[in-house]
Amino acid sequence: MQILSNVRIAGIAAESGQSTLSGPSVIVTEGPRIAWTGNAANLPDEYAGAPRRDLGGRVVTPGLIDCHTHVVFGGDRAREFEMRLEGASYEDIARAGGGILSSVRDTRAASEDDLLAQALPRVDALLAEGVTTIEIKSGYGLDVEAELKMLRVARRIGQVRPVTVRTTWLAAHALSPEYAADRAAYLRDVVMAGLDRAHAEGLADAVDGFCEGIAFSPEEMGLVFDHAATLGLPVKLHAEQLSDLGGAALAARHGAISADHLEYLGDDGIAAMAASGTVAVLLPGAFYTLRETRLPPVAALRRAGVPIALATDCNPGTSPLTSLLMAMNMGATLFRMTPSECLAGVTLHAARALGLEDRGAIRPGLRADLAVWDIAHPAELSYRIGFNPLHARIVGGDFV
Ligand code: DI6
Ligand code: FE
Fold it and tell me: In degrees, to the nearest 5, what angle opens at C-alpha 161 toward C-alphas 169 and 58?
């Protein structure tokens, strides 16, 4: 048991939606959970003897949650970035064997230890900004063994660093070259048979896919989701990133915990997501990198009461972003989300996007995953660009 004293707790006002800050408060943690929060004067006697740590009036938020990443992959795509700036199109690069398939080659060729060593600096950059939970997807293996390898590396990240890792099976990210002539066989032999293996080995917490003209159709993803349901696994979807195929509505029909990207989301998709409680995960790093101009329908999502989350989408092709604070800044500046929406987007709503009910807020009974900041007001987390005011990260009650 410990008492974190002299903290100011960042919250969100119910009526105005603006960020709020409590007066000097205490948070009592007991093991990995929050036991009590409130004004020091009301501290129950049972906690009075616990060791105290004075946090000097600093602002405390829930630990940040990056609910959409592809942080495990081999190699990088800096040369491709350079080629695009020299005039090559995405298609030119793909025809020359680059693009996503170059990441697949590098990921297949890497050992588990190599992939771990390559991913850790990216993970550490996220943790240095107060991230305490991270979702990690497969999707650069595109064969069963390489996909499983990616998720084993993801699990190892959660063992060697103080962070909760949630894993997602994303074999339906792209069609592997070996199956170019037989999509149905890819779905059967790699996506679904591999999912059975991942599930049996405890490697998959959820199932995702890329629903797009250049990837998989809603019909194909429906088959994958039906299979996920037989295993009791929650589903989510990369939907409406480059076009509107009705992916979000499909995901909502399957009770998806989230639909992600959503630049081309229309009213039907919004209504379907609102009805099913599916979280909208917006990914401004990919929007920025691809120099998209079509904005996700933030105002309509807000009106419909769809919870909005923000994530880095950290990946080597379209979002080489390892800063969740930067994603918050982009959520505000590019997408016109309010600072309090941005904060909810990387805490409470990000937890919901992962199906986690035990975190994302500061309340008795929830996990004591906290971030302590050297700021005067929570809006600063979205306002600053490229500045990291983290003072301390607390994971399961421990300062780390
Ligand atoms: N959406 C994207 O933008 C990336 N994946 C996805 O589902 C692209 C991944 C890559 O180019 O490596
Ligand atoms: Fe993604």
Answer: 115
- Please give the full DSSP string across 162-177, using - where no structure is assigned: SSEEEEEEEEETS--G
Pocket of ligand 1 (CB under 6 A): 99-100, 103, 173, 210, 238, 241, 286, 315-318
**Cα 306 to middle of ligand 1, angstroms:** 24
For the CA of 290, the nearest atom of ligand 1: 3
Instruction: Please name the amino acid found at residue 272.
Output: A
Q: Give the tens place of pLDDT for each residue, 81-105.
A: 999 999 988 778 877 878 899 999 9
Which residues of the chain have a pLDDT value below 50? none
Tens of pLDDT, residue by residue over 320-348, are 999 999 999 999 999 999 999 999 999 99
Please tell me the residue having the least CA distance from ligand 1 atom 7: 210
**R_g (Cα) of the chain, nearest Å:** 21
Q: For residue 149, what are the contacts with CB-CB under 8 A and spacing of at least 6?
A: 112, 115, 141
Q: How far apart are CA 97 and CA 120, in angstroms?
A: 27
CB 201 within 8 A of CB 182: no
Phi, psi (degrees; rounded to nearest 5) at 388 = -115, 100
- How many Å apart are CA 233 and CA 168, to the nearest integer? 10
Question: What secondary structure letter does DSSP report for 45?
Answer: G
Residue 169 Cα to ligand 1 midpoint, Å, equals 15
Instruction: Say if pTM beats, i.e. exceeds, 0.85.
Output: yes
Ligand 1 centroid, distance to 13 Cα (angstroms): 36
Q: Which atom of ligand 1 is nearest to the CA of 170?
A: 7
